[in-house]
Design brief:
Na+/H+ antiporter like fold, 14 helices, mainly alpha
């Protein structure tokens, strides 16, 4: 049980930071937009670039963003089909969108570092890139009920700074360009800023909701999709890889699996608010999934990450 309690203790500070963000948004009226812009346009690209530079470049590294994009899409489409049995309105669209999302960045990165150390940052960065590609393209397209064209979706992808940061990092890595200790010492400080600001942003996003509405069917399906369907889809893909191409090694299997059991992405609350598509239901689903992950992730780690 040592790994369970070790990870549980390391997760608690993240929830305290989240609480600070929630209180800051609720009572100090801190606006999340500036923090979100700082994270998305500056801090995250630096982390993704640094991770790509430091990670060994091979087919497993290059394919990870594609893997996570595909998994997001598969889970989203399955949930969309399942939601059709219960809803005929936009509820199934926003449910499908959030089911395919995952908090691989603000939540997944610090948890992965706690379990595996700083050497896995590049791998997590690839996962972050894949989930962000989904959220800003097909995921948003589904949530908006097709009101955004394929061209607009592609345009959103091409505007992502992390996409170019990842590509540039791979180019620098392959070219063998040495950035020096001064750069890496500076870049490492971005990790702490990312974790603190990212978890505070989760709290700020939740504080925006005026009311929280519990829809047990909505929350139940989103939990099944996130904490059961996600791992099952990934395990099936990894099993297929193990018996065929062997692109990923056993250590990488554990990191990939960890990224599948993180809670629902907090930024989907903002998307739901913009689209006016049941933001109160989405906020409650994100909040409960984040609380559930406090025990769920250490429990999975105890059984699979020894």
């Amino acid at each position: 049980m040592e790994i369970f309690f070790t990870l549980l203790i390391k997760l608690i500070p993240l929830y305290l930071i989240l609480l600070v963000g929630y209180l800051g948004g609720k009572y100090l009226h801190i606006q999340k937009e500036s923090i979100a812009t700082l994270l998305i346009d500056i801090i995250v690209p630096v982390i993704v670039f640094t991770g790509a530079v430091k990670t060994e470049v091979n087919i497993s590294t290059i394919s990870l963003p594609i893997l996570f994009f595909v998994v997001c899409l598969i889970v989203s489409l399955i949930t969309y089909a399942l939601g059709g049995f219960f809803w005929k309105d936009a509820t199934r669209n926003i449910l499908s969108f959030i089911a395919g999302s995952g908090n691989t960045g603000y939540f997944g990165l610090p948890v992965a570092i706690a379990l595996f150390g700083n050497t896995i940052i590049g791998i997590v960065a690839a996962a972050i890139l894949g989930t962000n590609l989904y959220a800003t393209s097909i995921g948003f397209y589904i949530a908006a009920k097709g009101h955004h064209t394929v061209k607009e979706s592609i345009s959103k992808i091409l505007k992502l700074p992390i996409l170019y940061a990842f590509i540039l990092g791979i180019v620098v890595n392959i070219a063998g360009i040495k950035l020096g200790n001064i750069y890496f010492d500076t870049a490492n400080s971005f990790n702490g800023a990312y974790i603190v600001l990212g978890m505070m942003l989760v709290g700020l996003g939740l504080s925006d909701s005026k009311t929280y509405k519990i829809d047990f069917r909505f929350i139940g399906i989103s939990f099944i999709a996130k904490f059961l369907l996600w791992p099952l889809v990934v395990i099936a893909i990894l099993f297929l890889d193990e018996v065929t191409f062997k692109i990923y090694n056993p250590h990488l299997y554990k990191i990939i699996l960890l990224m599948t059991i993180v809670p629902l992405a907090a930024n989907v609350v903002s998307y739901a608010t913009v689209l006016k598509s049941h933001p109160e239901k989405v906020a409650m689903a994100v909040l409960l999934s984040t609380l559930f992950a406090l025990l769920y992730i250490p429990l999975v780690a105890f059984f699979f990450f020894k």
